[in-house]
Write a structure and sequence with these properties.
By secondary structure, the chain is an alpha+beta fold. The chain has helices at residues 4-15, 30-42, 63-76, 133-146, 158-170, 175-182, 186-198; strands at 21-24, 46-50, 84-91, 94-101, 110-112, 118-124, 127-130, 172-173, 202-207, 210-215.
């Protein structure tokens, strides 16, 4: 007989891995799992299901050990430190840990790679990807712009109008493409995109490995 808890976990598993959910058979490396925590935190949050194989089969784990490893990852290998909440479910005698990661109030969140070099990760579909330098700048600016009051009237510069017109006609463009389009430097293009993003006019998306600027 399936319990409500069993139904809940099985329903989550049926969703598969996606932007807000990742399966982990077990946690063996705190630094590696920190990348998943950072990626979810830099996006809009998500959760890990530990004790679940990639194919969705429930293997079960020793919950206390997994929780300890994840807490270590969040506190020691995420910069700034992240907070993770846990729920343990017993499914047919096997423990599954659901670790919830909230969207970080302070971005970007970094985690180390296998060589100990710190990077910013972002969750795209069912993968953790390295955030582009442009996206890092956008995330860094989000906190400061959140405290600024907007204006009822927005006046766009020529370089901003060029970008917005292109997005209306073509849908999206890379940073390098915008540099060529507007005949401006990388820094000037980055500042323009960061400003437009803070106004809520453009957003950053990832497609086929490219970081794209698209209209909001």
């Amino acid at each position: 007989m399936r319990t409500k808890k069993s139904h809940y976990i099985q329903d989550l598993i049926l969703e598969g891995e996606h932007e807000h959910q990742d399966f982990k058979y077990q946690i063996t490396d705190a630094r590696k799992i920190a990348r998943s925590i950072a990626a979810f935190a830099n996006n809009s949050g998500g959760h890990l299901l530990i004790g679940v194989k990639d194919n969705g089969n429930i293997a079960g784990v020793r919950s206390e050990e997994e929780i300890y490893m994840i807490e270590t990852a969040a506190q020691m290998y995420c910069r700034p430190e992240q907070h993770v909440t846990f729920k343990v479910f017993n499914i047919n005698g096997k423990s599954v840990v659901k670790a919830d990661i909230a969207e970080a109030p302070e971005k970007p969140v970094e985690a180390p790679d296998d060589n100990g070099v710190w990077h910013v990760y972002y969750r795209v579909a069912d993968e953790n990807v390295l955030a582009s330098r442009l996206h890092e700048r956008v995330m860094s600016a989000e906190q400061s712009s959140a405290d600024e009051s907007g204006s009822d009237i927005i006046s766009f510069s020529t370089r901003e109008q060029v970008l917005l017109q292109y997005l209306r006609e073509h849908g999206g463009i890379t940073l390098e493409g915008y540099e060529r389009l507007a005949h401006i430097s990388e820094e000037a293009a980055t500042r323009t995109i960061v400003a437009l993003h803070s106004m809520g006019v453009v957003v950053i998306e990832y497609h086929d490995g490219d970081c794209l600027i698209v209209g909001a």
